[in-house]
C-alpha cells in the first residue's frame, strides 16, 4: 500500500514534525511504501498563477480553472505540480500533518490544495463526495494545537475541533471522494510535558496502525473482487 504524508510545519524539531516522523516510521515498518511531501522543506510555492502551467491558452485573460482543465488533458502542469499530483495519484492513504494557526491550517497547505488538486485531475463536474475521483482512498488529519481540549469543545472559545477542520475534512478530503477518518489531535502540544507528548506519540502510532490495517484490508478486498 502507498501512503502519502503531507506535512506543513516549518520546524523539523516541532512536535508536529515528531508526529510526522512517527507516521513515516510506523508505515514503513508495516511494509508500506511512503512518500513525503514536506511542504516547507520543499519550499513549496502556495501561490497559484500562470507559473502553474508550461503554457496557457489565453495570455490576455487568466482563467485558472480552465487552464487547469487544459493542463490535465495535455500534461501541461509545471514540474512541481506534476510531481505532487503523481504522489497523490499513487497514494492509497493520505496522512495530513499540520498545526492549527488562526483557526486553520498554514497557508502553505491551502496553497497545495489550490494548485495540486486541480480541475481535471482531482475533480470534474459531477464528481464529488460519493462520486469523487479519489473514491477508495483513505485520509486522516493529525494536527497539533496550542489550545487545550476544553478550548476546542462545544460552547467554549474556539468551538469543536470538527468545526475547525470542516473545510479540510469535508470540503476537501471528502469532496474528493476519500474516506475520512476522525482526526487525531494533539491538544496543547507546547503546553504539556515530555511524558504527555510521548504518550501522544504512542497513541498516534497505535491509531495509525489501525487506519493502515483497515486500508490494507480494503485494498485486498478490492483486489480479490
Detailed description of the structure:
Strand 1, helix 1 (15-29) and strand 2 (33-38) form a beta-alpha-beta unit. This protein is 41% helix and 14% strand. It has a single domain, classed as 3-Layer(aba) Sandwich (Rossmann fold). The chain is globular. The chain starts with a strand and ends with a helix. The chain is built from 7 helices and 6 strands, in the order E-H-E-H-H-E-H-E-H-H-E-E-H. The protein is an alpha/beta fold and 225 residues long. It has helices at residues 15-29, 64-74, 79-90, 107-116, 161-164, 166-174, 194-224, and strands at 2-7, 33-38, 93-99, 138-144, 179-180, 184-186. The mean pLDDT is 95. Helix 1 (15-29) packs parallel to helix 7. The longest helix is centred in the last third of the chain and has 31 residues, at 194-224. Strands 1, 2, 3, 4, 5 and 6 form a 6-stranded parallel beta sheet that branches. This is Flavodoxin-like fold domain-containing protein. It comes from Rhodoplanes roseus. Belongs to the NAD(P)H dehydrogenase (quinone) family. Residues 1-208 form the Flavodoxin-like fold domain. InterPro entries: Flavodoxin_fold, Flavoprotein-like_sf, NAD(P)H_dehydrogenase_qn.
Amino acid at each position: 500500500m502507498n501512503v502519502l504524508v503531507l506535512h506543513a510545519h516549518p520546524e523539523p524539531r516541532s512536535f508536529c514534525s515528531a508526529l510526522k516522523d512517527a507516521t513515516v516510521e510506523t508505515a514503513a515498518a508495516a511494509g508500506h511504501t511512503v512518500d513525503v511531501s514536506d511542504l516547507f522543506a520543499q519550499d513549496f510555492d502556495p501561490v497559484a498563477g500562470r507559473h502553474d502551467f508550461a503554457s496557457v491558452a489565453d495570455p490576455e485573460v487568466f482563467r485558472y480553472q480552465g487552464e487547469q482543465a487544459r493542463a490535465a488533458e495535455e500534461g501541461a502542469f509545471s514540474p512541481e505540480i506534476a510531481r505532487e499530483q503523481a504522489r497523490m495519484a499513487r497514494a492509497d492513504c493520505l496522512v495530513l500533518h499540520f498545526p492549527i494557526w488562526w483557526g486553520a491550517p498554514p497557508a502553505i497547505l491551502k496553497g497545495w490544495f489550490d494548485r495540486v488538486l486541480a480541475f481535471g485531475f482531482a475533480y470534474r463536474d459531477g464528481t464529488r463526495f460519493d462520486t469523487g475521483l479519489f473514491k477508495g482512498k483513505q485520509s486522516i488529519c493529525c494536527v497539533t494545537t496550542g489550545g487545550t481540549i476544553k478550548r476546542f469543545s462545544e460552547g467554549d472559545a474556539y468551538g469543536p475541533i470538527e468545526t475547525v477542520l470542516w473545510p479540510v475534512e469535508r470540503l476537501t478530503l471528502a469532496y474528493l471522494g476519500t474516506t475520512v477518518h476522525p482526526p487525531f489531535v494533539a491538544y496543547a502540544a507546547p503546553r504539556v510535558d515530555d511524558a504527555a507528548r510521548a504518550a501522544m506519540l504512542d497513541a498516534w502510532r497505535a491509531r495509525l496502525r489501525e487506519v493502515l490495517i483497515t486500508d490494507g484490508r480494503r485494498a485486498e478486498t478490492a483486489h480479490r473482487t
